[in-house]
Amino acid sequence: QVQLVESGGGLVQPGGSLRLSCAASRSIFIVYNMSWHRQAPGKQRELVAEINNSGNTNYAVSAKGRFTISRDNAKNTVYLQMNSLKPDDTAVYYCKAVKPGYVYWGQGTQVTVSS
């Protein structure tokens, strides 16, 4: 089993920045495709950004140009740098790890964007 632990959430002002981290327990982290998802109150969980094991990335339209997903395989960690944050970015952010036949979710970290 892979354990994922998110960190870095918190309260920020509109226009501010946060850097989320997701640390995985496995040393074979490199084989996983990683992604960030978020769920706002009363809304469905949605994909924010993803990065595969080749380093290719994909972003939701709402995130593109503001957010950057990256990974450090040596540290078994994936990051989400969030800039120019908006109140609509307020949500619980979840880390996800996938390889064929396996899906793992973290517990989430709260991001609140408010003045």
What would your notes on this structure say?
The protein has strands spanning 4-7, 10-12, 18-24, 33-39, 46-51, 57-59, 67-72, 77-82, 91-99, 102-105, 109-113. With 115 residues, it is mainly beta. Strands 2, 4, 5, 6, 9, 10 and 11 form a seven-stranded mixed beta sheet that branches. A four-stranded antiparallel beta sheet has the order 1-3-8-7, with no helix packed on it. A hairpin with a 4-residue loop joins strand 7 (67-72) and strand 8 (77-82). The N and C termini lie far apart (40 Å). 32% of the residues are buried.
Task: Please give a quick description of this structure.
With 115 residues, this protein is mainly β. It is built from no helices and eleven strands.
Outline the fold blueprint.
Layout: E1 4-7, E2 10-12, E3 18-24, E4 33-39, E5 46-51, E6 57-59, E7 67-72, E8 77-82, E9 91-99, E10 102-105, E11 109-113
* Helix amount: under 10%
Strand segment count: 11
Instruction: Report, as a whole number of angstroms, the end-to-end distance.
Output: 40 Å
Q: Any idea what the radius of gyration is?
A: 13 Å
N-to-C SSE series? EEEEEEEEEEE
Unreliable runs: none
Q: Report the portion of residues in β strands.
A: over 45%
Mean pLDDT metric: 95
SS-derived structural category: mainly beta
> Biggest β-sheet, characterized?
7 strands, mixed
Helix count? 0
**Given the C-alpha coordinates, what overall shape results?**
globular
